[in-house]
Amino acid sequence: SRMQRFGRMSSSSRNRSRLALVDMKGFDPNDVTVMVKDRKVTVLAEHRDECNTSAAKTYNYRKLMKEFNLPAGVSENEVTCSL
Fold first, then answer.
1. Which residue ranges make up each domain of the chain?
2. pTM above the 0.70 mark?
3. What angle do CA 16, 30, 23 make, to 5 degrees?
4. Any idea which fold 29-72 has?
5. Are 9 and 80 contacting, i.e. CB atoms less than 8 angstroms apart?
6. What is the DSSP string of the chain?
7. Residue 81, class by beta-carbon neighbours within 10 Å (0-12 exposed, 13-18 middle, 19+ buried)?
8. Which residues contact 50 (CB under 8 A, 6 or more apart)?
9. pLDDT in tens, 41-66
């Protein structure tokens, strides 16, 4: 399963801890944007599908947005993510 993981690395202990785990099912990695600004981590994902058949044209649109506050003592520069 594809999950978005956010973590930080402590400069003293080098241990990783997880801030959030977000289910990204239905989104391609190119659909996902992660931003860190003003002590908040924002995950934004948008996906559009278009299907043409001889009878009809259908569209499917999905959007997800999650926002997390950084814990005290965590620098914005320490945030990493993986998909």
1. 29-72
2. no
3. 50
4. Immunoglobulin-like (2.60.40)
5. yes
6. --EEEEEEE-TTT--EEEEEEEE-TT--GGGEEEEEETTEEEEEEEEEEEEE-SS-EEEEEEEEEEEEEPPTT--GGGEEEE-
7. middle
8. 57, 58, 59, 60
9. 999 999 999 988 888 899 999 999 99
